[in-house]
Amino acid sequence: MQLKNRSNISKALAIASCSLLGHSAQASANTEKPDDWKVDAAIMYYGEEDRVQAVEAIGNVQKAFGDESLLDMKLVVDSLTGASASGAVAQSETQTFTRPSGNGQYETASGETPLDDTFQDTRVQASANWAETLSPVWKTNVGVNGSKEFDYFSLGLNGGVERSFNKDNTTLALSGAYTFDSIDPVGGRPVAFSSMALRADYDTEEEYRTAFDMTRMAGSEDKKTMDMMLSVTQVLSRRWLFQANYGLSSVSGYMTDPYKILSQVNDTGTTQSYLYENRPDSRLKHSFYMMTKGALDAGVIDFSYRYTTDDWDLNSHTLETHYRYYFSGRFYGQVHLRYYQQQAANFYRPFLMAGEPLPEYASADYRIGDMTTYTLGLKFGQRLSGGHEMSYRLEYYQQNPENSGFDLVGQLQDHDLFPEVKAIIAQVSYSF
Amino acid sequence: MSIQEKTASSGFELTRRDWGYLGHFRAMASPCELLMATEDEHLAREMMNVATCEAMRIEQKFSRFIEGNPLWKINHAAGTPSLIDNETASLLQFARQCHQLSDGRFDISAGPLMKLWRFDGSKIPDLADIERARALVNFSKVIFDEHQVQFPDGMSLDFGGIAKEYGVDRVAYLLAEKWSAISVLVNFGGDIACPVSKGAGNAPWQVGIENPQRLDSAAALLEIRQGALATSGDTRRFIEKNGQRFGHIIDPRTGYPVVKAPRSVTVLAPNSVTAGMLATMAMLEGEQAEIFLSEQEVEFKCFR
What we know:
The complex is a heterodimer. By secondary structure, chain A is mainly beta. Chain A has helices spanning 9-21, 205-214, and strands at residues 37-48, 53-65, 69-81, 84-85, 95-98, 105-108, 115-116, 121-133, 138-149, 152-165, 170-183, 189-190, 216-217, 221-235, 240-253, 261-265, 271-276, 282-296, 299-310, 316-328, 331-342, 352-353, 371-383, 389-401, 421-431. Chain A has a single domain (6-431), classed as Porin, CATH 2.40.160.40. Helix content of chain B is 31%, strand content 29%. Chain B is built from eight helices and 18 strands. At the A-B interface, helix 1 of A face strand 1, helix 1, helix 3, helix 6 and helix 7 of B.
């Protein structure tokens, strides 16, 4: 009953299928090299009105090794110039400050917020990450990162595991990181709460130098950070997913900003001296984060909320949203809105009163004071041929520091001690 | 983690995966999927448009359930000749070759017999009904050339055994023609084609094969870089009578389902129509399925 030439059926069928499909039985064996390299390059500009300006070049290279392994390398070089608030309060008189190095002075006009204009640095950051898919449900990653700037060196290690459940609809991730930072400030580390030596108070350069050196300690200080993060991601529906994170961060070591000072004022609000700030040497931070992301018919939207709290009593709330709309398959626009609000650290003092005992810790750095910030951003992305993508981002960022209930004495009432800081961020990125 | 997106208008869904995009739609009474090894969402959407249009076109033209379509007209010609286009003629030509190669066991005119075996209960058709139906089944009575087809009144054609595999190949080739460097796996309800190789550096596509004993869990994993795969089986449709299991593959020469056929047969071949036909022919071989497939020198997997 069986055909003699049965073994040729598959060949006969293959030939028959060719005339049916009008193609050769062997589909075109186009073995083009798979595109497993991905390169992103970006230039970013950050400019605060009258203050810090930064230009950053970002290079990111990803190389996939099959479907299981991914190497991600990133290099960021940035250059900062401009001035940043020193922490001293504005005065009705011109103020003179010693530069952090002890070499030379700078002046701040009456009514102006004192800005340290010696702020200039170049920073190089590099990181490498290896992600490995161990099985359909287990993933792992390890990474190293380092950063070097003139007075700062940082080296970190990180690693994590990810487990998916429920047909990939649920993902649990646990990651940890250890970072070691070494700080070697220009001109040495200031002695906590030592009074800034001013050249005008001394007859000779030698006497001034001796006094300045009294405010300084030689050698570098270090800081160690341990981070841990637990994250759960849940696909809610075809269009929505939800993510929640808990992060714990423990920092110990030198967290004082060696370039920040506090004005010590008398009853009339007039500055008597400038004291170098002092911060605690340990900090335990918790962060809670929730995000939901949804696919719309022609776009993607996300909303997130983050709450952070720490044993410096610095608590913050962040609300953020991105909405991306595809005008066409090749062109999208994205709106970014962010609202951030923080409560001052418990040792934040906009100034110190002369004659009162010094607190254990104090800093007038507005960045740890009460503050609200707003970000409004627009981004446009354009897909070019060959999978290349060009994107442009422009953001407006405003910081509104606030007085968290400190009584302003004397002339301090005449000045804006909590000035707004406005900044523009511009970025151009190219991916290929 | 994956972020899923959907296009409401064009009737497909697109999902971002870490290897590319997964597209999904329904056609030919099957879930249809495209696995596209591209990061480019716009391109994935274009591919999905091509795929859905072609699948719909083939379904519209060759489904025997759509009143007034070209196949319906052929089946209602009451013994008179019907004009056909090149594509229909090619399919008939292929059906004829399959009929010959299978020694008459693969027959697209077997519709009347199929109708008797409904597989929705455990009732076995009457012998008299089977004999009546059998008289209306014989592809050698179908006369056709490039322009027209004609067969006796009462007979009918059903492309169900070819059209889905043909659709898979058509979609796969259309995509490969337009995007020759991007590997796409086309999967229409288990009939699969992947004409563009995934490339030596990339992991092959992985295809799960259903275990007929335990539905909805993949029993075996086949890896495919390039080529096609089709499954024939009675995993879900059968009648059991006196311990005898009648699968849904009917031998038109006897009018009865093939006995001792494997529960499912999966075959790897250069294209989906070849794979599908080999799988069907293997089922028709019954007990001899594995031997038949071994002789064909193709990769296969049989579940019994």
